[in-house]
Amino acid sequence: METPQPPDRPTPDPPPTPPPAPQAPAGPQPPAPPAGPQAPPAGPEGPPSYGGPVPPGGWQQPIAQPPGGWHGRPLASWGSRVGATLIDFVILLVPVILLTVIVIGIAAGSDAGAAITGLLGFLAYLVVAFLYAPLLMARDGARNGQTWGKQAVGVRVIRNTGEPISFGFAALREIAVKGLLVGIASSIIPLIPWLLDVCWPLWDDENRALHDMVVSTHVVDG
Fold it and tell me: Distance (Å, rounded) from C-alpha 219 to C-alpha 222?
């Protein structure tokens, strides 16, 4: 015997979907923060960084400056300068020897004659000694600035201005500065000023003696 089936029940409807909640109206948005300073793009060759202000025309490559020091003819060595001085000394020593022989010969016959001859000879020697260097150094051409001693070793004196050596300038260098000024200083402090003047080219970067610095000269090969 079959069991009776219950009648079908109607399927309930799903509950209704609630309406969406109302959205708040969009208010004004806060402005974005300003962008910070941006580094400039690096160029192919940017200027070097340094703390000073950039000149109005922009950075430029600095002009290389020539190194300091002497840029003229090759400077004479200390040995050649000393050699020239010794040769000049020997040249000026010859009249002294001749004068001494003459005075001794005259003194054998007359004391008064020997005294007069000696005095005149000494005065003549002073004139020759004072005029020796200025007259020779004032010669024109390739011998300008040379005594016979400098000519023998191949050196000459030149002025820093490029002007030739005149008689007056040679007298200033050889007599007033090199002779009298250094001589007077050596008489006050024996030998030291003279030795300093002679030896100064050994440590001067331009081979100058003290008297060269005073009158602005250089001794060069030539």
Answer: 9
Alpha helices per DSSP H over 108-188: 111-137, 148-153, 167-171, 182-188
Helix (H, G, I), strand (E, B) or coil at 185: helix
- Rounded Cα gap, residues 135 and 145, in angstroms: 10
Place of tokens 């009776």: 4
96, 104 contact by CB (below 8 A): no
DSSP code of residue 110: -
- In tens, the pLDDT along 74-123 reads 999 999 999 999 999 999 998 888 878 887 777 767 777 777 777 887 88
The per-residue pLDDT for range 142-187, each reduced to its tens digit, is 999 999 999 999 999 999 999 999 999 999 999 999 989 998 999 8
CA distance 196 to 72: 25
61-96 CB burial, b ≥16 within 10 A, e <16 = eeeeeeeeeeeeeebbebebbebbeebbeeebeeee
Round to whole Å and give the CA distance between 135 and 171: 9
